[in-house]
């Protein structure tokens, strides 16, 4: 991050994520959408606009999601995840209860991480 560093996740968080990859692989990006980078707030906003539009509706339908189903981005939009990319969406409503809990925890970790990375860039 332009010569600045952000400390890695603490060992317990690293272990949680490693274990989560084994227990819930459907939560992690595949193909071209699995690379993480720090997306600017503008890039994230553009991705959210795409996700909220007709293309997002088509992508949700494409993974079998119906009205009321929660859909997760495997690679978060604020980390460069594809808003509608194949392999980056999971119908969270169809995950096991354990994997839904894991997804919620990882979402919190990722939100904190992107805030730290953006702070390092400013």
Please provide a written account of the structure:
The radius of gyration is 15 Å and the shape is globular. A two-stranded antiparallel sheet has the order 1-2. α1 (about 10-25) packs across α4 (about 95-120). The longest helix has 25 residues, at about 95-120. The mean pLDDT is about 85. The N and C termini lie close together (about 10 Å). It is mostly helical and about 120 residues long. The chain is built from 4 helices and 2 strands. About 20% of the residues are buried.
List the helices and strands and how they pair.
Elements: H1 11-23, H2 41-52, H3 54-62, E1 71-73, E2 89-91, H4 97-121
Antiparallel strand pairs: 1-2
Helix pairs in contact: 1-4
Mean of pLDDT: 85
SS field, number of helical segments: 4
Rg: 15 Å
Largest sheet: 2 strands, antiparallel
Percent of residues in β-strands: under 5%
User: How would you write the strand order of the largest sheet?
Assistant: 1-2
Order of helices and strands: HHHEEH
The residue ranges in which pLDDT falls below 50 over 5 or more consecutive positions are: none
The helix-and-strand class reads mainly alpha
Q: What is the 3D form?
A: globular
Distance between the termini: 10 Å
Key words describing this protein structure:
mainly alpha; two-stranded antiparallel ribbon; 4 helices; globular
